[in-house]
Amino acid sequence: MEEETETEEELRTRTEKKVKKAAQLLFFRRHRIPGVKGWELKKALGDNYMDVIEVLNSALDRFGMEVKRISREGGIGEGEGEDEEKKERDRFMIVLKNHMVEKASGERIDDVAMLSATLAFIISKQGKAPRKTIEDFLADKFPKHRIYFALDRYIRQGYLGEDDKVLYIGWRTRAEVDRKSLLDLILSA
Asked: Is 0.90 topped by the overall pTM?
């Protein structure tokens, strides 16, 4: 009877240590791009890293946060039947569940406005728009030198993607920005 209690206790302790390690990996940036690749989690936490992420998710839920899995190719990665290789290539990051928290981004208000306007413009053009058109659109409200710098920064940060001078919604926007709420807020203003 005592041996079962010890193994149960050991299992609980081991799981708790893995959840703490996962939280540390996900909260603190080690690279320019936030989050951690699936293979990094697997290496640090073991083969059952998805179970550890689920436990961490339930703990983060109390704080209004969640771990999102983002695929480079397209949207949010979900589903049980996916192959392990795809999960290892995906990026995991902690995001806020409620996007209406003030001062959570740490960005200047005019930079947030420029990103919001750019995203709304791209969404209105079915997800892609020529860079020159976006620059002209933003030039009515912002200085040109700020526009070039900001667009390049958004591309580096993953909020936008660029392919042959055409901008599109980046992987980080799919993870952090509620596009429907963004458009509702812009249309209601």
From this structure: no
